[in-house]
Amino acid sequence: MKRNSITAHAVGERRSEIAEWEQSNSDVKWLTLCVIRREVLMRTITKWIKPGAVFLEAGCGVGRRLFVCALNPNIKHAVGLDFSKELIKTTRKFKAKYGFHNISLIVADTMHLPFQTGKFDIISSLGVIEHFPNPQLAIREMSETLKTGGYLFLETPNKNSYATTSMWTKTAIEKFGRQDLYSPEQLAQLTEKHKLRTIMVTGDDFGGSIAQLMNDRLGKHLPKPFIQPVFQSVKVLCNLLNPVMKHRGFLSVVIAKRTAD
User: Fold this and answer.
1) For residues 106 and 57, what is the distance between their CA atoms, to the nearest angstrom?
2) Poorest-pLDDT segment among 15-19, 120-124, 175-179
3) Please, where are the H alpha helices in 23-105?
4) How confident is the model at residue 38 (pLDDT cuts 50, 70, 90)?
5) Where are the domains positioned within the chain?
6) Against a cut of 0.70, is the pTM above it?
7) Checking CA distances to 80, which of 103, 114, 141, 157 falls within 20 to 30 Å?
């Protein structure tokens, strides 16, 4: 069944978000994050990816995680979607430069997905819905475009994280226009009305939580050349505690399965 085509959607409160992301699109940063995130992300989702899977990243930005997932041999085709033409333009540049042939890129809105019902085996939306005034609408759209038995991966900043201080939240609102916070359990509750059965609720990146907290408290007192090396070292070391401190991790993570109609 063909779903409604994309409709116009007001994005005024997200314009600053676009500008912020577009300032971070260097090859070095993209490749670094691709390497750092590859093992962490793939360990999380690989066991749910079956051969021939069709994958969507809703809100792909410059494609850092999209390209990581496309490297999985079980992914037949990966689709990256973002509402920013400039971000998709940058992602197309990376696609051509690094020779990815199993990726399609689309300018569209996660709140109004232009796909057929039941098109995808896996959808991820990582660091996206917390900027929407109506995240339920986006989750419903993603659920409808999942196949029965398909999986949805959601990730947002964790309300219970040490990092999501009032200072961090204020900065995020200034950058993105809107920044909601969810605990893992609250994030899971958003999926309950949309034919999705939660199969995993957790936190992640405790090291990132501590590093961000230190940045808020100490960043202005350190010489600039030392800031990133110090906080990256803290992040790596503290992430060793993630199995026991994940409820305080920087990220809320939910994996849900699409049930039969």
Assistant:
1) 10
2) 15-19
3) 27-45, 64-70, 85-98
4) very low
5) 12-205+251-258
6) yes
7) 157
